[in-house]
Amino acid sequence: MVDVIDSTIESIGCFCVDSVSSFTRNRILTPKTLIKFILGLQDHSLSAEISGYFTSSDIDIPSVSAVSQRRDLLYPEIFKSINRRFLSSIDNLSTLNGYYILAQDDTQISYGQDSIVCQYHLNALYDCINHVF
User: Fold this and answer.
1) Are 76 and 15 in the same domain?
2) What is the DSSP string of 66-101?
3) Which of 32, 41, 65, 88 is buried deepest, with most CB atoms within 10 A?
4) Is residue 70 domain-shared with residue 103, that is, in the same domain?
5) Is the model's pLDDT at 84 over the cut of 80?
6) Contact (Cβ atoms closer than 8 angstroms) between residue 14 and residue 85
7) Is 51 found in the same domain as 14?
8) 28 Rama sector, left if φ>0, alpha if ψ -120 to 50, beta otherwise
9) Are residues 74 and 132 in the same domain?
């Protein structure tokens, strides 16, 4: 996944509100850090997510406002592109009758008033046939 994020960042201008000036200044929240943070979000408040993510890294903790402002520089399509690139990177893996046999160890199911939400933590996803995470 890191390779997919890196290759997407090489063309970050295609996914920014202002392709000339967005992400040109040196900030705590680089595009890579911001994207990895967003992809790792869980179901906590933004301040709790920021605190949990950045206290375990060597980066200063940004404010909620800073994260929101940097996020507003990106078009949502960047995440669709990352997802497409990631999925296409596993096309050459072996399958069983066309199905990938995957194992994961962390699932959260939430039952709302009108919906059911099922979250999988893909950082723990394992391909049982190809023996890769």
Assistant:
1) yes
2) HHHHHHTTB-THHHHHHHHHHHHHTTTS--BTTB--
3) 32
4) no
5) yes
6) no
7) yes
8) alpha
9) no
Q: How far apart are CA 133 and CA 124, in angstroms?
A: 7
Encode burial over 27-48: b for 16+ CB neighbours within 10 A, e otherwise.
eebebebbbebbeeeeeeeeee
Q: Which residues, listed in sequence order, are joined to residue 109 by a DSSP beta bridge? A: 118
* Residue-level pLDDT at 68: 93
Q: What total of structural domains would you count in the chain?
A: 2
Q: With the CA atoms of 79, 42, 38 and 127 taken in that order, what torsion angle do they form, in degrees rounded to the nearest 10? A: -50
In which domain, by residue range, is 120 found? 94-133
* Single residue among 89, 104, 124 that ends a domain in this structure: 89
What DSSP string describes 12-52? GGGGBSSTTTTT-S--SS-HHHHHHHHHT--SS-HHHHHHH
Average pLDDT over residues 68-90: 87
Backbone angles phi, psi at 102, to 5 degrees: -115, 145
Q: State the amino acid at position 121 in one-letter form.
A: H
